[in-house]
Amino acid sequence: MFLQNLISDNYENISFKANDGIILKGWFFNADSQEDNDKLIIFVTGATQNRINTGYYSVLIAKELLSQDYNVLMYDNRATGESEKQYNFWYLRKPGYY
């Protein structure tokens, strides 16, 4: 069983492009509500962590948010997990590049 299945079976693998073209990957969990829902929580991890960082109880928090009818997006920062491996020297970049 994968970590995402511990959160919910109602998820999809996603990828999106950062401002500088780096591909970031993650999971989108859709709340199991019966009505359309535009509530979204985006998990942002520490600089060297990825979406499966269990140090901040991500599984429990995500499950609770889904039970409260929030959609949840969890992704890997650049150079972590499954996202592309270009380090983010944020202090050297122009504003707006993440």
Give the N-to-C terminal Cα separation: 31 Å
Question: Which value, in Å, is the CA radius of gyration?
Answer: 14 Å
Averaging pLDDT over every residue, what do you get? Answer: 77
Q: In this structure, how is the largest beta sheet organized?
A: 4 strands, mixed
User: How would you sum up the global shape?
Assistant: globular
Q: Low-confidence runs (pLDDT<50, min 5 residues)? A: none
Largest sheet strand order? 1-2-4-3
Tell me the number of strands: 4
Helix segment tally:
2
The helical percent reads 10-25%
| Helix/sheet category | alpha+beta
What is the H-and-E element order? HEEEHE
β-strand percent reads 15-25%
Structural descriptors:
single chain, 98 residues, alpha+beta, four-stranded mixed β-sheet, 2 helices, 4 strands
Describe the SSE topology:
Layout: H1 3-7, E1 11-17, E2 23-29, E3 40-43, H2 58-67, E4 71-75
Parallel strand pairs: 3-4
Antiparallel strand pairs: 1-2, 2-4
Structure commentary:
The protein is globular, with a radius of gyration of 14 Å. With 98 residues, it is of the alpha+beta class. A hairpin with a 5-residue loop joins strand 1 (11-17) and strand 2. 16% of the residues are buried. It is built from two helices and four strands, in the order H-E-E-E-H-E. Helix content is 15%, strand content 23%. The protein has a four-stranded mixed beta sheet with strand order 1-2-4-3.
